[in-house]
Design a protein that fits this description.
The protein is of the alpha/beta class. The protein is 43% helix and 20% strand. The chain contains 15 helices and 16 strands. Helix 14 (344-353) links the parallel strand 11 and strand 12 (358-361). The two termini are 46 Å apart.
Length: 428
């Protein structure tokens, strides 16, 4: 099947899915989870072959970590599907209601977006998450993973697709692209594809945005910060910083830059640096932090828009809260940023004025995740400000429509002044 045929069939499937009830959608998620369990051996074999080829070709270590689909990732994918199944149906929710006139009632109701395309690199678990979210939200999807994960993606897609159809999802609700040429064709199919979600490097996302007229949801960089205020508890600060950086450094929500109030640094920077280095994190120190620790500076340029995706972290001392906020808004990627402080006033100022999708107080940046937010799973994290922001789950794959019910009402009666609008909100 050609790319345009897949898009045309996917559009038809999305329209057919508009009539799905919750029972069918939930049954499909149960069937997918069961299919992954029964197909574990085939998935493991496919992933082992992908990993072997990737290692032979010299794939970067962070990408190798994302490519691995071991038993732990299989189990977490199954848990995510089952969690999605148990969430309320996002479709058909009454968002608002208004009486325009006595018999003229307007309702705002959630509905699926339609045909969604997702292009991603290295992470086979992203395929499972997206498939589950699409099934639950009543959409259809075209998926394109990185060629380094071709066997794993193929194995997962076949298992999930067949399980979904057997449970009642429409034919062509999911399809898989495998070549770059197909991606190029897909980017021009805005008459069929309603939303495009790219997940990968900033260069990759920028290229997708530049080459397509399809609306794009996502983020380019994951330049996340932790700021340690002057009154931060040193033990708490160490826990939050180490988790933010080292718990999974290849993730987009891993902290890349540590900002430290000078007063806190004088007392406790040594403790924080020791905790990070004990977690195998290499520090890029600005001249001030290096002098305080008795070392040579390793971060001497003025470019703080750094994304290591590895066990490496930049450190900079700042005068206080406002300098930290200004630095984050200038150099950050508006993804996830955290403050550690005992002051609720400082925390609220930070969270109000940092222009990011996720802003935290005394918590690791690694919490920026759809599953951890209780969204079941996520299609990615959006740093944009239209439609969806932050971890994008079921609601981010829905839009809404306006339903108006009347009794032969016509605009001419209101234009002439014979009738007048009441515009009375109806409690939900």
């Amino acid at each position: 099947m050609t790319t345009i045929e897949k898009a045309r069939s996917g559009k038809a499937a999305a329209q057919a899915a508009l009539g799905l009830d919750r029972t069918t959608k939930d049954a499909s998620l149960s069937a997918m989870a069961k299919a992954l369990r029964s197909g574990a051996a085939a998935i493991a074999s496919a992933n082992a072959a992908d990993l072997e080829d990737a290692e032979r070709s010299g794939l970067a270590a962070p990408l190798l970590k994302r490519l691995a689909f071991d038993q732990a990732k299989l189990e977490s994918s199954i848990i995510a599907l089952e969690a999605l199944r148990d969430l309320p149906d996002p479709v058909g929710r009454l968002l608002s209601a208004r009486r325009l006139d006595d018999a003229l009632v307007l309702r705002q109701v959630s509905c699926p977006i339609g045909l969604v395309a997702m292009i991603f690199e290295s992470r086979p678990d992203a395929l499972v998450q997206m498939a589950g979210l699409v099934a639950k939200s009543g959409n259809a999807v075209i998926l394109k993973g990185g060629r380094e994960a071709a066997r794993t993606n193929r194995a997962l897609a076949e298992l999930i697709y067949r399980a979904g159809v057997a449970a009642g999802l429409p034919e062509a609700w999911l399809s898989l692209l495998e070549s770059r040429e197909e991606v190029g064709e897909l980017l021009g199919l805005d008459q069929y594809v309603d939303l495009l979600i790219p997940r990968g490097s900033k260069e990759f996302v920028a290229r997708i945005k530049a080459e397509s007229r399809i609306p794009v949801l996502g983020h380019a960089d994951g330049i996340c910060h932790v700021y340690l205020h002057e009154d931060a508890d040193p033990e708490m600060a160490a826990r939050v910083v180490v988790d933010s950086k080292a718990q999974y450094p290849a993730a987009c929500n891993a902290a890349e830059v540590l900002l430290v109030h000078r007063a806190f640094a004088t007392r406790s920077l040594g403790r924080i640096s020791s905790a990070l280095e004990a977690a195998s994190v290499r520090l890029d120190l600005d001249p001030e932090s290096a002098a305080l620790l008795g070392r040579a500076p390793t971060k001497t340029d003025s470019d703080w828009a750094v994304e290591y995706l590895d066990l490496r972290m930049a450190v900079k001392l700042v005068d206080g809260l406002d300098e930290a906020i200004g630095h984050i808004n200038r150099f950050g990627s508006h993804h996830t940023d955290a403050i550690v402080t005992s002051s609720s006033e400082a925390a609220e100022r930070f969270m109000d004025r940092v222009d990011s999708a996720d802003v935290y107080w005394n918590a690791s940046t690694r919490f920026a995740d759809g599953y951890r937010y209780g969204l079941g799973a996520e299609v990615g994290i959006s740093t944009g400000k239209l439609h969806a922001r932050g971890p994008v789950g079921l609601e981010g794959l829905c839009t809404y429509k306006w339903k108006l019910s009347g009794r032969g009402d016509i605009v001419a009666d209101y234009a002439s002044g014979e009738k007048h609008f009441k515009h009375e909100d109806i409690p939900l």
